Amino acid sequence: MSAPGKADAIARANIALAKYWGKSDDRLNLPAVPSLSITLDPMRTETRVELDERLDADVFELDGKVALPKETARVTAMLDRVRAESGIAAKARVTSRNHFPTASGLASSASGFAALAAAARAAYGLTRDDAKASAMARRASASAARSIYGGFVELPAGEPGDDALAAIPRHDASHWDLRVVVGVITEGRKDVGSREGMGHSRETSPYWRAWVESAPAMCGVIREAIAARDYERLGPVVEQSFTTMHALAFTSSPSTMYFQPASIAALQTVKQLRDRGVPVWPTMDAGPHVKAVCPGEAAAQVEQALAATPGVLRVLHARPGAGVEVG
Ligand code: 2P0
């Protein structure tokens, strides 16, 4: 075998400023709307892929424990594609570790599948090709396509059938010192997962069509505002992208509501800060946590105010980070 047989990769989480919510092709996992995110430090996943001719099936260990069968099945699905492309049939041992601050409110699937795609391609001897790794990561989890690249990254909407769809790096991490301050809200019931939630929105929300029609313009403004480092233009659209996405979830039947009372309190904190002249706008994902997006110089004030908000357990501070690193 000419493959090195073993490779390591590190990938970071990301947070979407323009949200992805809903698919145009379920089988190929293609998004119905474009999204744009910041790849984040210090939330990262480290993954090792080691080929082992003696194995009859892939083995996946996550954070020191053998993973659940359904988690291993998603890993095997990706490895099967790498095996098909490389022509090497050997199974692999995959070891993955998340270095996330405790209950960060940020999903590890994006960094996890990005690190896996990059490590697996290298271990099976494929030449580094970030666009291919991004498309492969997208098949597993669309947000993972964005974590292949650092800084500010866009994932266009996919036309059904376009299995090559990959993210596009717009600017690297040094382009703009934007910060994301996460207000971690009380751990309560388990939320409806993103995949299930977005499918339900597409099937049942009367606003689905309006979302698909309006999301590209919001993403376009966000793209332009980032290019111009224009925070005044960026902030209101970042808010509108998440409120429109949550309106979709909220108006699904039965309703999917990700907000908890403390989410509202944290959103009010952000609004009050802004009323006092602090540049800060919020976003939220498929969970109750509030993520405040602000320029670096405002971050300390935002952290302090969010930490003092009733129901906010702790506050985390993230900044633009690098794309996938393969070793
Ligand atoms: C995003 N989210 O753009 C949006 C906003 C959550 C809310 O991408 O079904 O795990 O695996 O492609 O990528 C999370 O959804 O969904 C997500 P699948 P994924 O960040």
From TrEMBL:
GO terms, biological process: isopentenyl diphosphate biosynthetic process, mevalonate pathway
Pfam family, one: MDD_C
GO-annotated molecular function: ATP binding; diphosphomevalonate decarboxylase activity
Domain Mvd1 C-terminal positions: 180-295
SUPFAM superfamilies hit by this protein: GHMP Kinase, C-terminal domain, Ribosomal protein S5 domain 2-like
Keywords: ATP-binding, Lipid biosynthesis, Lipid metabolism, Lyase, Nucleotide-binding
ATP-binding found in the keyword field: yes
Residue ranges of domain Diphosphomevalonate decarboxylase-like N-terminal in the record: 11-166
Enzyme Commission designation: 4.1.1.33
One GO CC annotation: cytosol
UniProt cross-references to InterPro entries, sorted A to Z: GHMP_kinase_C_sf (IPR036554), Mev_decarb (IPR005935), Mev_diP_decarb (IPR029765), MVD-like_N (IPR053859), Mvd1_C (IPR041431), Ribosomal_Su5_D2-typ_SF (IPR020568), Ribsml_uS5_D2-typ_fold_subgr (IPR014721)
Protein family according to the UniProt entry: Belongs to the diphosphomevalonate decarboxylase family.
Name the UniProt record assigns to this protein: diphosphomevalonate decarboxylase
